[in-house]
Amino acid sequence: MSEQGRTRRKGYEKGDEEEHPLYRYVCDREEQTGFPLLHTHRIFLKRRGLDSRLRVLILVLACSVLVSRLFSVVKRGESLQWMMVIAALLYLQWHRCRVEQEAVVVMPTLGVQLETVYCSKSVKRRFVPLHRILLPVINEAVTPTTCYSYLALLLRDEARLTLTFLHVRPPLSMLVPIRAALCAAVEQPSLQTAP
Amino acid sequence: MDTQQKCQMRHRVLMVSDFFYPNFGGVENHIYYLSQCLLQRGHKVIVATHAYGKRSGVRYMTNGLKVYYIPRLPFIQQDVLPTLCGSLPILRTIFVREGITLVHGHQAFSTLCHEALLHARTMGLRVVFTDHSLYGFADLGSIHMNKVLQFTLADVHQAICVSHTSKENTVLRSGLNPEKVFVIPNAVDTAMFRPDPSMRPCGTDEIVIVVISRLVYRKGADLLVEVIPEVCRLYPQVRFIVGGDGPKRVRLEEMREKHGLQDRVDMLGAVPHAEVRSVLVRGHIFLNSSLTEAFCIAILEAASCGLLTVSTLVGGVPEVLPPDMIVLAPPVPAELSNAIGRAIELLPQVDPFSMHNRMKNLYSWMDVAKRTEVVYDQSLRSDDDDLLVRLSRYYACGPWAGKLFCLVVVINFIVWCFLEWQQPAKDLEVTPDLPPPQAFADELN
After folding, report:
1. β-pairing, A35-45 with A23-32?
2. Taking the domains of chain A in order of start, what are their residue ranges?
3. What percent of chain B has pLDDT over 70?
4. Glycosyl transferase family domain: which residues (chain B) (predicted)?
5. Residues of B numbered 196-235 whose beta carbons fall under 8 angstroms of chain A's beta carbons: which are they?
């Protein structure tokens, strides 16, 4: 579609060719008369199946039973009502903090914006100017229970890595094109003419 | 057939041990050199060990050797706390991510090794174990250690020992079928340990005896305290260089003070491995006073540097060097002093460079890798047993221990099934294989 010389191309890149059970990758490129304006890479958390919701339900009920037992001052007849209230509150809080998608928005000559969108529709953004970025890197993290790949930004004059995706752990096949786009923006900060 | 196809036909090995770099020792050296040679032969090799301080995560060593430093801190003597199923999630993830087909555990003292071998068998992978040390039978620690070893080796496909003596010791401790045990001795990097007679004292008839070891009981530091003054008394031209550190260093310092040997005994303290060669080439004779040794790489390094070796006749030491390169004696101070006297008489017949050349032909890490490959191929030909057959092997370990072992294995299996349900293996990301270094690719082609 074209609006006032702007074109928006939605592309499903490698993330769509490989059906990943947990994540969906969408690459959105916005251009104006051949000049790239925004290059957005979004990772969506897929709504998981019945067994995932069942797990959450069991966990919530267990927590609510525990909490209601702790506050055993309530009368026996009211304990079920309190359990329902506590379970509902816990579920709402979990749903509010649940991440819906994370995005890396590459703005040529300006910088990179890192977004986290929650199910409650609140959005957290962080902007990193282009001149501060030394290099985007893909590395592997090892925890006591698992290991996964992550994409981070090496910033000038900063010892700590800046993670691009804080809550999602997309596979390497999704991180590679994002890193390529970041490298292209960092290494060639001037505008490129479209071929 | 291109390089990539050849690599795909090769083994995908995970070396597991609590003992790896940056810690330094015989086991660490063995794992590193063996891994490098297997990489050169086209296999995929990954190493897994515990974190060392802030060194945690994935690191890459020479020629792309990938090392997982799992964030589990050491509990005692560089071993992690044994948790049985605690390491199953991370090890399972590593096995699946790297496409591991064979797990090679090192050293009986390593709890991470034992856990990794158990989890690997639960997941149906091939398992090989290498024992690097001799261990006793009588004391309480040995009894428990041997029972743990019996548990692990009850279900291992093949085992490797570094000497025939070590094979006997391992078979007796664990009850393993001797036909499953291969003997593959360690080797030495002869390119690094080269003789240099110019570093020895020239123009004098002074004889330098070098001792490099950890100054602990097992390494015979108490023997040194008796032997050094006696040798200095009998042979006025002899001087000692002692490298190494440990709890027995104080005793050696006291001996030096008591007999006034400050000018004849140099105490260097801890010697980094990169500087060991520079210390060895200053001597004529290398003295090893260990009370127990499965193999002893130190005397290989000394022989490669052209030193005549005097050693205690213990463990697998007699299997290491030809008789004309080593003088053996029982671990008794008087006998060891006599052996040093015999070695001094033999010194004029010793040519450092011919000794070095012989060592080049006798020992090489590439030969160790080729022989280890045979063990890997043999393990692949073994039958793939299901859980019930495995349980029958564990059950035979003892009236009480057998039942306990079966319980542990069943719990491990249940936890693995839970992990498979919670995060199926097909959902785990598989890491791409790094291309081999160009030199290796050229050699394979």
Report:
1. antiparallel
2. 6-46+129-191
3. 96
4. 204-345
5. none
